[in-house]
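Issue: ligand-bound run for glutathione - logging full I/O for the record.

Environment: standard queue, default settings, no custom constraints.

Inputs:
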Amino acid sequence: MMKLYNMTLSGHAHRVVLALSLLGLEAEMIEVDVLGGEQRSDAFRAINPEGKVPVLTDGDVTIYESTAILTYLAAKYDDGTWMPRDPALLAEVQKWFIWSANELAPGAARARVIKVFGAPFDLETAQELGRTFLKKLDRSLDGKHYLVGERATFADVAIYSYVAHAPEGGLPLEPYPNVQAWISRIEKLDRFIAMPKTPAVAA
Ligand SMILES: N[C@@H](CCC(=O)N[C@@H](CS)C(=O)NCC(=O)O)C(=O)O
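Outputs:
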Protein backbone atom coordinates (compact mmCIF):
# COMPACT_ATOMS: atom_id res chain seq x y z
CA MET A 1 0.00 0.00 0.00
CA MET A 2 1.16 3.56 -0.68
CA LYS A 3 2.32 5.60 2.31
CA LEU A 4 1.82 9.32 2.76
CA TYR A 5 4.08 11.15 5.20
CA ASN A 6 1.57 13.78 6.15
CA MET A 7 0.87 16.76 8.37
CA THR A 8 -2.88 17.16 8.77
CA LEU A 9 -2.69 20.96 8.96
CA SER A 10 -0.35 21.40 5.96
CA GLY A 11 -1.97 22.66 2.78
CA HIS A 12 0.89 21.18 0.74
CA ALA A 13 0.11 17.77 2.22
CA HIS A 14 -3.65 18.32 1.89
CA ARG A 15 -3.23 18.58 -1.90
CA VAL A 16 -2.08 14.97 -1.89
CA VAL A 17 -4.73 13.80 0.61
CA LEU A 18 -7.37 15.35 -1.66
CA ALA A 19 -5.87 13.96 -4.88
CA LEU A 20 -5.72 10.43 -3.42
CA SER A 21 -9.34 10.69 -2.34
CA LEU A 22 -10.55 12.07 -5.69
CA LEU A 23 -8.76 9.20 -7.46
CA GLY A 24 -10.36 6.72 -5.05
CA LEU A 25 -6.94 5.54 -3.83
CA GLU A 26 -5.94 4.50 -0.34
CA ALA A 27 -2.66 5.21 1.40
CA GLU A 28 -1.35 4.57 4.88
CA MET A 29 -1.18 7.96 6.58
CA ILE A 30 1.94 8.62 8.65
CA GLU A 31 1.62 11.85 10.61
CA VAL A 32 5.00 13.62 10.90
CA ASP A 33 5.47 15.83 13.96
CA VAL A 34 6.55 18.87 11.96
CA LEU A 35 6.00 21.31 14.84
CA GLY A 36 8.22 19.08 17.00
CA GLY A 37 10.95 19.04 14.30
CA GLU A 38 10.66 15.35 13.31
CA GLN A 39 11.20 16.30 9.64
CA ARG A 40 14.79 17.27 10.49
CA SER A 41 15.63 13.87 12.01
CA ASP A 42 18.08 11.56 10.22
CA ALA A 43 15.32 8.98 9.87
CA PHE A 44 13.04 11.40 8.04
CA ARG A 45 15.86 12.95 5.95
CA ALA A 46 16.60 9.44 4.70
CA ILE A 47 13.09 9.56 3.16
CA ASN A 48 13.19 13.21 2.06
CA PRO A 49 16.56 14.99 2.24
CA GLU A 50 14.67 18.32 1.96
CA GLY A 51 13.11 17.62 5.38
CA LYS A 52 9.54 18.49 4.34
CA VAL A 53 6.14 16.87 4.07
CA PRO A 54 4.38 15.62 2.01
CA VAL A 55 6.25 12.51 0.85
CA LEU A 56 4.59 9.64 -0.96
CA THR A 57 6.04 6.17 -1.22
CA ASP A 58 4.61 3.64 -3.67
CA GLY A 59 6.52 0.37 -3.59
CA ASP A 60 10.14 1.26 -4.39
CA VAL A 61 9.27 4.79 -5.52
CA THR A 62 9.62 7.78 -3.18
CA ILE A 63 8.39 11.20 -4.28
CA TYR A 64 8.37 14.56 -2.54
CA GLU A 65 7.23 18.03 -3.66
CA SER A 66 3.45 18.11 -3.60
CA THR A 67 2.86 18.92 -7.28
CA ALA A 68 5.40 16.28 -8.34
CA ILE A 69 3.33 13.81 -6.29
CA LEU A 70 0.15 14.95 -8.09
CA THR A 71 1.94 14.46 -11.42
CA TYR A 72 3.02 10.95 -10.41
CA LEU A 73 -0.44 9.94 -9.18
CA ALA A 74 -2.04 11.21 -12.39
CA ALA A 75 0.50 9.48 -14.64
CA LYS A 76 0.13 6.19 -12.81
CA TYR A 77 -3.50 6.07 -11.68
CA ASP A 78 -5.55 8.62 -13.67
CA ASP A 79 -7.24 8.13 -17.03
CA GLY A 80 -6.86 11.76 -18.11
CA THR A 81 -9.72 12.99 -15.94
CA TRP A 82 -7.66 14.92 -13.38
CA MET A 83 -4.60 15.64 -15.53
CA PRO A 84 -5.77 16.39 -19.06
CA ARG A 85 -4.03 14.61 -21.95
CA ASP A 86 -4.56 17.55 -24.30
CA PRO A 87 -1.10 19.22 -24.55
CA ALA A 88 -2.35 22.80 -24.18
CA LEU A 89 -4.54 21.96 -21.17
CA LEU A 90 -1.72 19.94 -19.60
CA ALA A 91 0.55 22.98 -19.95
CA GLU A 92 -2.14 25.08 -18.25
CA VAL A 93 -2.16 22.69 -15.29
CA GLN A 94 1.62 22.99 -15.04
CA LYS A 95 1.29 26.78 -15.05
CA TRP A 96 -0.93 26.63 -11.96
CA PHE A 97 1.52 24.19 -10.32
CA ILE A 98 4.30 26.74 -10.84
CA TRP A 99 2.17 29.56 -9.45
CA SER A 100 1.27 27.40 -6.46
CA ALA A 101 4.98 27.36 -5.56
CA ASN A 102 6.00 30.86 -6.72
CA GLU A 103 3.00 32.93 -5.67
CA LEU A 104 0.72 30.97 -3.33
CA ALA A 105 3.43 29.53 -1.06
CA PRO A 106 5.15 32.87 -0.23
CA GLY A 107 1.77 34.64 -0.02
CA ALA A 108 -1.44 33.16 1.41
CA ALA A 109 0.26 29.98 2.67
CA ARG A 110 3.00 31.92 4.46
CA ALA A 111 0.55 34.41 6.01
CA ARG A 112 -1.33 31.44 7.48
CA VAL A 113 1.82 29.78 8.83
CA ILE A 114 2.75 33.08 10.54
CA LYS A 115 -0.70 33.63 12.08
CA VAL A 116 -1.45 30.01 12.99
CA PHE A 117 1.97 28.65 13.92
CA GLY A 118 3.94 31.83 14.68
CA ALA A 119 6.50 31.26 11.91
CA PRO A 120 9.14 34.02 11.83
CA PHE A 121 8.33 35.76 8.52
CA ASP A 122 6.99 39.21 7.68
CA LEU A 123 3.17 39.12 7.80
CA GLU A 124 2.57 42.30 5.75
CA THR A 125 4.73 41.08 2.87
CA ALA A 126 3.07 37.67 2.83
CA GLN A 127 -0.44 39.17 2.99
CA GLU A 128 0.33 41.59 0.15
CA LEU A 129 1.55 38.73 -2.06
CA GLY A 130 -1.52 36.78 -0.96
CA ARG A 131 -3.88 39.56 -2.07
CA THR A 132 -2.10 39.93 -5.41
CA PHE A 133 -2.54 36.22 -6.10
CA LEU A 134 -6.18 36.17 -4.94
CA LYS A 135 -6.97 39.05 -7.34
CA LYS A 136 -5.35 37.17 -10.20
CA LEU A 137 -7.20 33.98 -9.26
CA ASP A 138 -10.50 35.84 -9.11
CA ARG A 139 -9.87 37.32 -12.60
CA SER A 140 -8.88 33.89 -13.94
CA LEU A 141 -12.13 32.39 -12.68
CA ASP A 142 -14.30 35.05 -14.29
CA GLY A 143 -16.89 33.14 -16.36
CA LYS A 144 -15.18 29.83 -15.58
CA HIS A 145 -16.14 26.98 -13.27
CA TYR A 146 -12.65 25.52 -12.92
CA LEU A 147 -9.11 26.72 -13.55
CA VAL A 148 -8.34 24.60 -16.62
CA GLY A 149 -10.80 23.38 -19.25
CA GLU A 150 -14.37 22.51 -18.44
CA ARG A 151 -13.95 20.26 -15.42
CA ALA A 152 -11.98 20.08 -12.19
CA THR A 153 -8.33 19.06 -12.57
CA PHE A 154 -5.29 18.77 -10.32
CA ALA A 155 -4.70 22.49 -11.04
CA ASP A 156 -7.73 23.17 -8.82
CA VAL A 157 -6.45 20.66 -6.27
CA ALA A 158 -3.02 22.36 -6.09
CA ILE A 159 -4.53 25.81 -5.58
CA TYR A 160 -7.56 24.96 -3.44
CA SER A 161 -6.08 24.11 -0.01
CA TYR A 162 -4.21 27.32 0.77
CA VAL A 163 -6.83 29.54 -0.88
CA ALA A 164 -9.70 28.00 1.09
CA HIS A 165 -7.65 28.49 4.28
CA ALA A 166 -6.41 32.01 3.41
CA PRO A 167 -8.72 33.59 6.05
CA GLU A 168 -6.61 31.85 8.73
CA GLY A 169 -3.75 34.06 7.52
CA GLY A 170 -5.84 37.21 7.82
CA LEU A 171 -6.90 37.22 4.16
CA PRO A 172 -10.71 37.30 4.01
CA LEU A 173 -12.21 35.97 0.78
CA GLU A 174 -15.25 38.27 0.55
CA PRO A 175 -13.54 40.59 -1.98
CA TYR A 176 -13.16 37.64 -4.37
CA PRO A 177 -16.65 36.32 -5.28
CA ASN A 178 -15.43 34.12 -8.17
CA VAL A 179 -12.95 32.50 -5.78
CA GLN A 180 -15.66 31.91 -3.17
CA ALA A 181 -17.96 30.29 -5.75
CA TRP A 182 -15.09 28.12 -7.01
CA ILE A 183 -14.27 26.97 -3.44
CA SER A 184 -17.85 25.78 -2.92
CA ARG A 185 -17.75 24.02 -6.30
CA ILE A 186 -14.58 22.15 -5.30
CA GLU A 187 -16.08 21.25 -1.92
CA LYS A 188 -19.06 19.65 -3.69
CA LEU A 189 -16.89 17.30 -5.76
CA ASP A 190 -17.54 13.63 -5.24
CA ARG A 191 -15.06 12.27 -2.62
CA PHE A 192 -13.95 15.80 -1.60
CA ILE A 193 -12.10 15.67 1.71
CA ALA A 194 -11.50 18.80 3.80
CA MET A 195 -8.44 20.02 5.67
CA PRO A 196 -9.46 20.95 9.23
CA LYS A 197 -9.68 24.67 9.93
CA THR A 198 -7.32 26.08 12.54
CA PRO A 199 -7.86 29.03 14.83
CA ALA A 200 -5.31 31.82 14.51
CA VAL A 201 -3.23 31.36 17.66
CA ALA A 202 -0.27 33.65 17.03
CA ALA A 203 0.38 37.29 16.08
N1 LIG B 1 7.44 22.82 -2.12
C1 LIG B 1 7.09 21.83 -1.11
C2 LIG B 1 6.76 22.55 0.18
C3 LIG B 1 6.47 21.60 1.31
C4 LIG B 1 6.48 22.31 2.63
O1 LIG B 1 6.82 23.51 2.76
N2 LIG B 1 6.14 21.57 3.69
C5 LIG B 1 6.13 22.14 5.02
C6 LIG B 1 4.79 21.89 5.69
S1 LIG B 1 3.57 22.88 4.87
C7 LIG B 1 7.19 21.44 5.86
O2 LIG B 1 7.29 20.23 5.86
N3 LIG B 1 8.00 22.24 6.57
C8 LIG B 1 8.95 21.73 7.47
C9 LIG B 1 10.21 22.54 7.50
O3 LIG B 1 10.40 23.38 6.59
O4 LIG B 1 11.00 22.33 8.43
C10 LIG B 1 5.89 21.01 -1.62
O5 LIG B 1 5.17 21.49 -2.52
O6 LIG B 1 5.70 19.87 -1.16
